[in-house]
Amino acid sequence: MLKRVVLAYSGGLDTSAILAWLKDTYDCEVVAYCGDVGQGADELEGLHERAMQAGAVDCHVVDLKREFIEGFVYPTIISGAVYEGRYLLGTSMARPILARAQVEIARKTGADAVCHGCTGKGNDQVRFESAFAALGPDLEVIAPWRIWDFKGRSDLKAYLASKGFETTSSAKKEYSRDRNLWHISHEGGALEDPWNPPPEDAWVMTASIGDAPNEPEEVLIGFEGGNARSVNGERLAGDALVDRLNGIGGRHGVGRVDILENRVVGMKSRGLYETPGGTILVEALRAMEELVLDRQTRRYRDELSLHFAHLVYEGRWFCQLREALQAAAEKIAEPLTGEVVVRLHKGHAMAIQRRSPNGLYSPDFATFDADTVYDQKHAEGFIRLLSLPERIRAFNAKKAPTEEPRVES
């Protein structure tokens, strides 16, 4: 029999209904928990009061913003991970740190179960429960949307009303959104038809192309070992740095993505993502890699990035392979120190300048003018060795018989 449950609590209609339902169903104490990963003050305001009104015995709000960026986002972008070519993994990276903190609260409060409000169709149930399995396998996991009888938000609103809990939440939301310091996602509503273009009112972090400034803006990013450390010469912690770039990129309409992605559970889902600061950082870091990494190392980093992206998207942050891949990515990123200038204009972010003390580009070698360090005659032998397999195959083809030998009877 359960005595105490730690609920991942947002303060909205769904998790408030879950809190009351847990008390009714299990006759247990409920500790509300919210991890602050940069979802905004408006979502956190009054959270403790709403939790207590819904019947929680306590409410813990944990500031995770800096650790989220520096401990989860930075390692992911260093690896080059981008899911299905375009998604910068904003929600995927936030789930493991939220789940880890939830387990820590469960240990601190003596809880014997954890609960989340994820639906049975989405990715987040996989991410939360995979983290729980790795960090708290002894804790019981409760997923109400997979077991209760409520069919939708109107049912939840009526249920809370019967408990005397007043909520200003609408029974119908046009979009389902998830926001953190790295991005905001939008799903549902008109977006469920892939033939519908994104409604302009869906976007909240980025300006439309028409409203973006006509003049471009350039931003200078400083890196140390692949980690962004400064913006326009000002040294900033990771959370402050991303917040600064979100403001700069957002007003230029940078970082919008409209994607049909393959969920972990098998179905396709359409989502709009806004990642203005992240788009700038990724563009700058890729430019630094172009300057510093040799061809073989860059190729391996590209292979590594695909594996890393799928592990993060599938909620496998706390597995040995992710740790090994991160160690490799961080080793590769050690020489990525220097500065990159990114030009922002009408939804575009393009690196236009880069420099590093570890850069492998040399004008002395790359010049089209005469030089004293590269003998072009050496290229002949290199090409002959590089193309040797093709040469041998061609010789063998010439020696092959042109017709089948005749067999005497």
- Specify the number of helices: 14
Q: How many individual β-strands?
A: 14
Query: Averaged pLDDT, please?
Result: 93
- Cα separation of the termini: 88 Å
The CATH homologous superfamily of the largest domain is termed Argininosuccinate synthetase, chain A, domain 2
Structural description of this entry:
This protein has a five-stranded parallel β-sheet with strand order 3-2-1-4-5, sandwiched between helices. The protein has a five-stranded antiparallel β-sheet with strand order 10-9-8-13-14, with helices on one face. It has a four-stranded antiparallel β-sheet with strand order 6-7-12-11, with no helix packed on it. By secondary structure, it is of the alpha/beta class. The chain has helices at 13-26, 41-44, 47-54, 65-79, 90-109, 124-135, 153-162, 238-251, 276-292, 295-313, 320-333, 363-366, 378-386, 388-399, and strands spanning 4-8, 29-36, 58-63, 113-115, 140-142, 176-179, 184-187, 217-224, 227-231, 234-235, 256-262, 268-274, 338-345, 348-355. It folds into three domains: 4-173, HUPs (Rossmann fold, 3-Layer(aba) Sandwich), CATH 3.40.50; 177-355, Argininosuccinate synthetase, chain A, domain 2; 365-392, no CATH class. The longest helix is centred in the N-terminal third of the chain and has 20 residues, at 90-109.
Task: Please name the defining characteristics of this protein.
14 strands; 409 residues; 14 helices; Argininosuccinate synthetase, chain A, domain 2; five-stranded antiparallel sheet; globular; alpha/beta; Rossmann fold; five-stranded parallel sheet
